[in-house]
Design a protein that fits this description.
Layout lengths: L1 H23 E8 L14 E5 L5 H17 L3 E7 H12 L3 H4 L2 E7 L5 H7 L7 H12 L6 H7 L13 E4 L4 H10 L4 E4 L7 H4 L28 H4 L7 E8 L7 E7 L5 E7 L13 H9 L3 E5 L11 H17 L6 E11 L1 H11 L9 E5 L10 H8 L4 H10 L13 E6 L8 H12 L4 E6 L18 H16 L3
Helix pairs in contact: 2-3, 5-7, 12-13
Length: about 500
């Protein structure tokens, strides 16, 4: 009798779990809205998302991500399905979502989806004549020189985009079976292989119980944020403004060719908050033109966006003092002429990367109360020049004498300006940055607490310098991290009202 009772209870438990799974897990099936294609999303139990075959790859990935976010924002767990190249784009789209979205993705179901376009279309060229490779090459041409074939192929290859947040995966069909198995095994990702799928049993592969998969040993499991913060990514390079953007180029703030800036603002907009960008480049290179599309993006959001140039270290008679002064004078010139650019000089965001961030902090620290900065965001910033090698220290300072050089390094290190710096600041940095090691931000965060500075660290896993992940130079979206930036900016600007 006890055995019968136990069996009944166990059966009820399984049934209850199955009912719960069906009630809390939603299956999203993505396919092209193409009448010539046989439908992959046949079951009426799925939510079928039809994607237009007439839009480019960037928009396809963005549309996929919007649908995933929509369901997860409604507190749903999801299983994602697609076939062919759509499955490849779905794979890339989901891995570019931040963990607070991806933790609700229970699994992927992919049928005959290419896993390594770099190998197939560029390196070995074994599928070079296929329609998928042709789509990739056409897309690369649309970028008009902003990305190479290699970069584009890597960005759209699921095998080269996997990380430890990748969901449990069901691979259907035989064409790419071996390639998928190799990629999934290399990244310690749990998976199944099937020739075909019984649709009513999809949820049997993805129970609600949390996966116990083995994590790679070289990955830190609990970063504050996970995901690439890219300097150049498709949402910026291929950015299409929704509004007409007015551009004012080569406005001078000094007599030198490099002492100038460009201004971008939305047509018929007034009293906009200001965004000022200071480019990086190791103090010896870089140009404001590289950030045209970033400025257009911020202008489209309602900012008056400005990208500045400054004289570079390799020019004759130009040192760190002159570069800091250029950035300071440029910021002052922009704020003094804010009304001319339809901007509000009391709401000012300064952004910069690498050397640009270091110069910006030093310049802001020298501003008077008349030219107050509201909020800053920097990435991959050098905070302590003493942390560089002796050779690098000498090349920056031009000083051989140790005592004199160390004093000079202190004068131009942001970590020593914290007693003068009171701007709410988000500082992004990669754990894996070899050019400007993570100790720069670690020490900066510690010392900022001494002066009660509002410095917020923004750690990125798996990135390089400036925060751009290895082998992932053109992932098509980091919109979630960008949204975090905007949330921080808006919060600080609203506090001024």
């Amino acid at each position: 009798m006890k055995i019968v009772t136990m069996i009944i209870c166990f059966s009820f438990f399984l049934y209850a779990n199955y009912i719960e799974s069906n009630q809390t897990v939603k299956i999203l099936c993505f396919e092209l809205d193409d009448k010539n294609e046989k439908s992959f999303c046949q079951s009426s139990k799925h939510k079928v998302v039809l994607l237009s075959p007439d839009i480019n790859i960037t928009h396809t990935i963005t549309d996929i991500q919007k649908e995933i976010r929509l369901e997860i924002n409604n507190e749903k767990k999801v299983v994602l399905m697609a076939k062919g190249f759509t499955g490849s784009l779905l794979s890339v789209a989901q891995t570019n979502l931040l963990p607070y979205f991806r933790q609700n993705i229970m699994g992927l179901v992919l049928q005959e989806s290419p896993v390594n376009l770099f190998e197939a279309c560029v390196k070995e060229k074994k599928d070079e004549g296929s329609s998928i490779c042709q789509n990739l090459m056409n897309f690369q041409k649309e970028l008009d020189g902003l990305a190479s074939k290699v970069e584009t192929a890597i960005a759209l290859s699921p095998a080269l985009q996997m990380d430890w947040y990748w969901s449990k995966t069901l691979i259907l069909g035989s064409k790419y079976k071996k390639e998928w198995a190799n990629a999934l095994d290399e990244n310690s990702i749990e998976y199944f292989m099937e020739e075909a799928l019984e649709e009513e049993k999809i949820l049997d592969y993805f129970p609600l119980k949390e996966s116990q998969k083995i994590q790679p040993k070289n990955i830190k499991l609990e970063p504050q944020y996970h995901g690439p913060l890219l300097r150049f990514h498709l949402n910026k390079i291929a950015y299409e403004a929704k509004n007409k953007i007015i551009e004012q180029k080569e406005i001078s703030y000094g007599i030198d060719f490099y002492q100038g800036y460009d201004v971008y603002s939305k047509e018929k907009s007034k009293n906009n908050p200001l965004m000022i960008y200071v480019h990086g480049g190791g103090w010896t290179k870089g140009d404001k033109k590289s950030y045209e599309n970033l400025c257009r993006q911020y202008a489209d959001r309602g900012f008056t966006a400005v990208s500045i140039n400054y004289r570079l270290l390799e020019e004759e008679r130009i040192g760190m003092a002159e570069m800091v002064d250029d950035v300071k004078v440029a910021v002052e010139h922009i704020l003094n002429n804010a009304q001319r650019y339809d901007a509000n000089s009391s709401k000012v965001l300064v952004m910069g990367e690498s050397a640009g961030g270091q110069l910006a902090v030093l310049a802001i620290s020298k501003l008077t109360a008349k030219h107050k900065i509201s909020v800053s965001i920097f990435n991959s910033m050098s905070t302590d020049l003493r942390l560089f090698s002796k050779k690098k220290q000498i090349s920056l300072s031009g000083i051989e004498d140790n005592k004199k050089r160390l004093k000079w390094l202190d004068n131009y290190s942001p970590i020593n300006q914290l007693n003068k710096y009171d701007v709410p600041t988000l500082v992004a940095h990669s754990f894996n940055d070899q050019t400007v090691p993570s100790k720069h931000l670690e020490d900066f965060e510690v010392f900022s607490a001494i002066y009660s500075n509002n410095i917020i660290p923004f750690w990125v896993e798996g990135g390089m310098h400036p925060i751009a992940p290895q082998h992932r130079s053109l992932q098509p979206s980091y919109i979630d991290i960008e949204n975090k930036n905007i949330e921080f900016i808006n919060h600080q600007l609203v506090n001024l009202e």
